[in-house]
Write a structure and sequence with these properties.
The protein is mainly β and 391 residues long. It has 4 helices and 27 strands. A hairpin with an 8-residue loop joins β12 and β13.
Length: 391
């Protein structure tokens, strides 16, 4: 039997692959050609393939007939240094997978009482199945540039679900979070889950494939991202050397700490997510030279939601506030933490996207207090135009 991943039209996000169950080795006199499949026969599984492009995945409709063009908003860019620090700007196709198979006997959708666990390199797996109903869960193995993994997986609490989560950093948290310290961001994570897969003796639901001389059963199974990418940029107009850099860190509050891999629904445990930032001088913004503090953030998203199941902003049931804060260095040696309310932008881009804040540095004074953290500037939601504020 071969099981191939298929695409159920996820807005052209995932490359289509066929989910098929191909029987071999049972004696069945009512079929021509006859099949030979004994109880416990071996089955090949070809896993779903992920190939995601941000242009397709961030398929928001800004207004009727107008699609979201994130590249037009993204002025920070992405160079070799960004790649070295952050990795790819978007998703990359995983090559190693974790497979969990749950046999529920003659009862479809029953509770899981045991699990068969395998790790697969490539997209093919060979194992043994018995007649009855099966649930299959797949998620990707994590591969990072520095070899350090932030994601943890809980498979012990219950066999009916697997939970992914991250742990706390030593960096203090702030604003609308349930914990005193910020949490590491997760690595890119994809999952697929299919339940009640029937493998029966009379081959009900199977079709004959004359090309490969096998019988095929088609299933719907797709690997979807369950961590979401946000590209953050604080654009400094008229900076003229006033702000000289950042401390390399950023934080976004009000996001979920965990997600259930089976369902893709983010947990209710609100946290502040810690991520890396970088300062670039003399970036081009529609012909204007600006300085930008930017970075890339991965998160499980807003709590209580599977963002892949949301089509319209009206369906976003998010009650948390979301604050973006970045510590910046001034030309007199002092530093200050700027805090921006970006709640609307996070909700409007529930599957990820560009978060932009614009500052007119002519309105920002240089801090004079020694010892750093001269002031925290809390800035309300920013729209497309530049807002000015006093301290």
């Amino acid at each position: 039997m071969k099981i191939y991943g298929s695409h159920n039209n996820l807005q052209t996000v995932t490359r289509s692959a066929i989910v098929a169950a191909v029987l071999s080795t049972l004696v069945c006199c009512i079929r021509d050609p006859e099949l030979h499949l004994f109880d416990g026969g071996e089955i090949d599984i070809d896993l779903p393939v992920v190939e995601l492009e941000l242009d397709a995945y961030w398929n928001y409709e800004i207004s009727y007939g107008v699609s979201y063009d994130w590249r037009a908003e993204w002025h920070y860019g992405w160079d070799a240094t960004d790649y070295e620090i952050f990795g790819e700007i978007g998703y990359t196709e995983p090559t190693t997978f974790h497979l969990r198979r749950y046999f529920t006997g003659s009862m479809p959708l029953a509770e899981h009482t045991s699990v068969l666990a395998n790790t697969i390199t490539g997209n093919s797996f060979n194992g043994q199945y018995t007649w009855g109903f099966w649930d299959i869960l797949v998620w990707n193995d994590v591969n990072t540039i520095d070899g350090v993994q932030s994601l943890n997986f809980d498979e012990q609490t219950s066999l009916d679900f697997v939970v992914a989560f991250t742990n706390q950093t030593m960096v203090p948290s702030r604003y609308e979070a349930n914990y005193t310290r910020a949490f590491y961001e997760p690595e890119p994570l994809f999952s697929a889950y299919d339940r009640g897969i029937e493998i029966d003796r009379d081959l009900t639901g199977f079709e004959y494939d004359s090309i490969h001389n096998v019988y095929v059963k088609k299933l719907d199974m797709v690997l979807e991202p369950i961590t979401y990418i946000y590209l953050t940029q604080v654009i400094l107009h008229n900076n003229r050397g006033k702000i000289t850099g950042v401390d390399g860190s950023g934080k976004l509050s009000g996001m979920a700490r965990s997600t259930m891999i089976n369902t893709g629904i983010a947990g209710e445990d609100l946290i502040t997510v810690y991520f890396n930032t970088r300062f670039k001088k003399d970036c081009d913004m529609n012909g204007e030279s600006v300085d930008i503090a930017g970075g890339r953030l991965l998160t499980f998203g807003m709590s209580g939601m599977n963002a892949n199941r949301i089509q319209y902003i009206e369906d976003v049931q998010d009650k948390a506030n979301h604050y973006l804060d970045i510590n910046m260095h001034f030309n007199n040696g002092n530093d200050s933490t700027f805090v921006f309310n970006v709640t609307d932008q996070v909700r409007q881009h529930w599957k990820g996207g560009v978060i932009t804040v614009e500052l007119d540095m002519d309105t920002i004074g240089v801090p004079s207090r020694n010892g750093g953290s001269a002031f925290d500037a809390v800035v309300e939601e920013f729209k497309e135009e530049t807002h000015e504020f006093g301290l």
